[in-house]
Amino acid sequence: MLEIRNLTKKYGKVLAVDQVNFQVPDGKIGILLGPNGAGKSTIIKSIAGLVKYTGEVYIKGIPSRHMEAKKIFAYVPELPSMFEALTVREHIEYIKRAYALKVSEEEIDALLERFELLDKQDKLGNELSKGMMQKVSICCALIIHPQVILLDEPMVGLDPAAIKELKKVITELKENNITVLLSTHMLEMVKELWDIMFVMDKGSIIASYDKEQVGDKDIESLFFTVTSGE
Amino acid sequence: MGAILYLYQRAFINRFKKALKKPVTYIYIILGGLYVGMVVFGFGTMASEFGVDNARGLVSILTFMIFFLMPANIISYTKRKGLIYKPCDVHFVFTAPLSGKQVLIYAFIKSLLITFLLGVGLAIGGTIWFHVAPWKMLLYFLYGSIIENILETSIMILLYGNEKLSEKTMKLFPVISYLLMAAFFVIGFLYLKQNGLSMNTAIDFLFLPAIQLVPVIGWSIGIVHLIFVGPSLISIIASSLYLLSAAGLAFAAYKMKCTGQFYEDAMKFADDYEEARNRGKKGEVALIGKKAKFNKAKIEYKGYYAKAIFYRQLLEYKKSKFFIFGINTIISLLISVGIILLMHFGDGAKEFGDIKEFVIPGVMAYVAFLTSGYATKWSKELANPYTYLMPDTAFKKLWYATLMEHIRSAVDGCLIAIPAGIYMGINPVQILLAICMFVCLQAIKLYLTVFAEGVLGNLLGTAGRQIMRMVIFSSLIGIGVAGAVIGTIFINIVAGYLIMLVISVILTFACMVVASNIFEKMEAVA
User: Is ipTM beyond 0.85?
Assistant: First the structure.
């Protein structure tokens, strides 16, 4: 489970996130939606521990800044950035060491093959296209076998085959009782995936929907009802 | 830590393998070797000339460096700008299950490696240049590699990773550091003023016992004295205090809680650093963390197609704080003042005699050769896809995209030539010809940039392109000089000036034609 309590973040005098509270239970896919500047990235970065904030963030009941929480948490940023001098495979090898993972070479091969990176595994970070970097970023997150995974605009830059594969992966994560939080603008892409939706604007959550409760209502109509109603 | 060491190991091996495959690596090795040889020989000669080629000289130099570097490091750590993180570090290292201290040490390893290499250089240099006993240099090297690094790492962790002390308290550290540095320089200046400006007086100042009593900074100088000059009461006390402080600070750093609160500042610095690095690759001067501020301005576009490039650039300059004026403007004025001072105090008229008319063009050619030129707007045009898509000829696009830079070089040419020319009593026609020649030289350099980028691409890297540009540029200057000499010898000075200008114009035009052909075939530079 991912739990956010009273999360507040100020950049100077600007209140980017204002007393945000929400939960994403185990095995559920949470979607964070909102216009540009709503505070989605700030929340994501706060959960990932990259910015200072007030409030509390818990990953499976463990405070997010604890080492135990970091070991079970994965993050895919919006703009992936590779180590220029490391190959694709070496990125995964580094993650293996950083997280003390017991992962076989065959498992790494299978993951790379799934995202069509096996034949590119010896390419250096500065030789990869944006889409390839995004795939490497996703592979690095998945190899951790996280309990909670955070994806910030993961489909940007991916080709249709990779988007399809990523959706499959997200569904598998859900089936394995992993908590997923996804920030995106691409409503169309997450139509079939979401379980809980949080709509943000001006630093606050203005609405949240549980798919089980809203039934067949379309994600777009839910989103635009809330945002255009202002 | 295993993951961190793995990162460094693989990055080094991969960079090394990649470098071996590039032909430019071998050119750099040769040039680097020549440069190091020059420095080794030159420094030794200089040390001997100044009378510092002994232990006292070494201690003085180290004292000066420590008193400057240590406070500077403290200031940068307190501001959380002393460690270089890249966006990939934010992505993969900050989010990994590593402690805040491990993340700090990860970035600090780069500094430690540089310090280690410098330590090796110093150990060798100390023996060769300063004639210090090898065992003393080895002892200092070991002290530096172990104890000094422990202290420096501890200070870095305590300041950079601090999560307890308030911002107000943290601001005291840079203030104290600045005050210390200021006091050092002011007292030094007063001491030299009182006792006479000489190398011996400077060394005497640096040997003052009070310097060794400054907390931490002075105490480390105490160890330098202890090793190189021999024990004294002050150096023993200072060294003991230094060792105690190193142990104490290391313990404090070990015990200090660090959960990564500094990640946000480090992340911002990483973004600013990456931006400045990318702008530097394009030839721009970029300060880390400083964003340019713009005024409001309007422009009336008086033309279409390629002309629009010129008016857009003019609009951008109108929005700039200082319009087209910048650091080059100040340098040009200073050059003019320098020429005037040289003529006045150096009795230049006597020294240069009949060829004094060529002092200004000579200086201009030297400036054009040494400086990087006006690359700012042009390099941005290359990155803009519309520069290539615009429906106009490559020649016109190149002309209008560089016209603003020619205007800037004309202004700077005026600033160099007019004050100095008036002072020297140079014929106004010659002053004008010199200005025109300067504009041509700067234009040639600009078009050679296009030429180098088009011909070499990324084959030899930025440095390789710059070397190629300099080689061709110096050859072309040689042609102009030859023309000027011939004209002066066989006709007169004005004829020499004219021939120099005509050659410059022809070469400029030729470079422009070649550059526009290459530009047409170039792909946009990312």
Answer: yes
